[in-house]
Write a structure and sequence with these properties.
The protein is α/β, with parallel strands linked by helices. It has helices spanning 11-19, 26-42, 44-55, 68-77, 80-100, 137-150, 169-177, 188-197, 214-223, 248-259, 275-289, 295-304, 314-324, 357-362, 398-414, 418-425, and strands spanning 2-5, 105-110, 113-121, 124-128, 154-158, 182-184, 207-209, 228-229, 237-242, 267-272, 306-310, 328-332, 348-351, 388-396. The chain has a 6-stranded parallel β-sheet with strand order 1-11-10-9-12-13, with helices on both faces.
Length: 433
């Protein structure tokens, strides 16, 4: 745990280092580049090697894909309450996604010209579902559930196998419920490479979406261009802006909710104008951490990834938040709703003491696939529109083109592009240059 206070001379430098945290550490990118390159070159043979190296499993290419029997067996293993939770969350997520979907539109800005946009669902999308340290069943719904709402024809998933080579039953049930029929027991950087480039067994996709650890984030960054990606989303992070009215137990619980994800690179940050609150939250963090099942993981984050920032006032705290650009930000201070617009960059904003971040992780509706590492300054959370192709539409009448053809020709002359000019001039009646 580290305290950063505006009272200290090193405050500005400490904040700068926090703001400039890397989305993917360079040493991880170097290691991932070798994995991605090998999969691109050797396909299934490389995948088999990495399954053996990283997962200690001998799985032949014919068994990469989950069978229909495995889906049926998984459904039998999932209890009624879990099925209800998955169904309810999926309904909320799809409902929000349907409200997001862009509609085709057009207008006429000048006589004879009609401009607009049309939106077409992608054909084949790959969803990465983390599962190495915990089966993230909810991520299925927050990726594939949104893709299905957007109308994607083929939704593919890759998720790490468990020690026995199987995939968690609730994950498989959620995948089938969300409309996914093609699932591969592949994880980490090698799974991302397989989806991006394709192998003899895994057909390539058009876009890869979903969160993951730093290795997954680095792999997505490396394959970008050969395939589209949603964002570079690495280890989870949460920032809480609070004043003296906030409950220390609530704050500690919410910080720990992100600390338990598993990589040890997560961050949990409290920014407050109340010095006394920091001490209370610290005490609660340590007390609550002792009761958690993932205590070793949490302990690493508490040691290296927990930060307390003392700000002179809430206004300055919100400026700090905008510069940090957190994946998740909770606002727990008087008048929080009126000041939400003062947060200039964040993946998702949670307002008030009764809106814990895990509500967004599981049941609220907006996708929990969000930008991390400060990338909320230029990336946004996954939405239904990320599964659509956007094309502009342009239509001219003859009369409208004739009014602008002189300008088309002039631009062609300026840019030394004769054929461009001719495509306009050839349409003049009886005139061919």
């Amino acid at each position: 745990m580290k305290l950063i206070s505006y009272r200290n001379a090193d405050c500005a430098e400490a904040l700068r280092q926090l703001y400039n945290r890397p989305a993917c550490p360079r040493e991880i990118e170097t290691a991932v580049a070798e994995i991605v390159g090998e999969v691109r070159r050797d396909g299934d043979r490389a995948i088999c090697g990495f399954l053996k190296k990283f997962d200690s499993l001998d799985i032949p290419p014919a068994s990469f894909r989950i069978t229909e029997k495995e889906f049926e067996e998984a459904e039998e293993k999932v209890d009624r309450k879990a099925k209800e939770a998955i169904s309810e969350a999926l309904a909320h997520i799809r409902d929000f996604a349907l409200h997001q979907i862009a509609k085709d539109w057009s207008y006429s800005p000048r006589p004879g010209v009609v401009l607009g946009e049309k939106f077409t669902p992608m054909d084949r999308v790959g969803c990465y579902i983390p599962g190495g340290t915990a089966p993230l069943v909810s991520t299925v719904l927050h990726t594939a559930g949104i893709a299905s709402a957007a109308g994607v024809r083929e939704i593919v998933a890759a998720t790490p196998p468990m020690k026995d080579g199987s995939v968690h039953a609730a994950t498989l049930y959620a995948l089938r419920t969300a409309g996914v029929k093609e699932v591969y027991r592949l994880g980490g950087a090698y799974a991302i490479a397989a989806l991006a480039y394709g192998t003899e067994t895994v057909p390539k996709v058009e876009k890869i979406v979903g969160p993951g650890n730093a290795y997954v984030a680095a792999a997505k960054k490396l394959v970008y261009g050969s395939v589209a990606i949603d964002m570079v989303a690495g280890p989870s992070e949460i920032m809480i802006v609070a004043d003296a009215s906030a409950d220390p137990a609530f704050i500690a619980a919410d910080m720990l909710s992100q600390a338990e994800h598993g990589s040890g690179l997560e961050q949990a940050v409290l920014v407050t104008d109340c010095a006394e609150l920091i001490g209370k939250v610290r005490t609660e963090l340590l007390r609550q951490a002792e009761t958690l099942s993932r205590s070793e993981t949490v302990a690493r984050v508490i040691e290296h990834g927990v930060f307390f920032i003392e700000a002179p006032d809430i206004g300055e705290a919100l400026k700090i938040a905008g510069n940090y650009a957190p994946e998740h930000i909770e606002l727990m201070f008087e008048g929080a709703e009126k000041r939400a617009c003062d947060v200039k960059a964040a993946g998702a904003v949670f307002l008030g003491p009764w809106t814990p971040e895990p509500a967004g992780d599981f049941t609220a509706g907006p996708s929990h696939v969000l930008p991390t590492g400060g990338t909320a300054k230029f990336f946004h959370g996954l939405s239904a529109n990320d599964f659509l192709r956007r094309s502009s539409t342009i239509r001219y009448t003859r009369e409208a083109l004739m009014r602008e053809v002189d300008f088309i020709e002039k631009f062609a002359e300026l840019e030394w592009l004769d054929a461009h000019g001719r495509s306009g001039s050839i349409r003049r009646t009886g005139v061919r240059k």
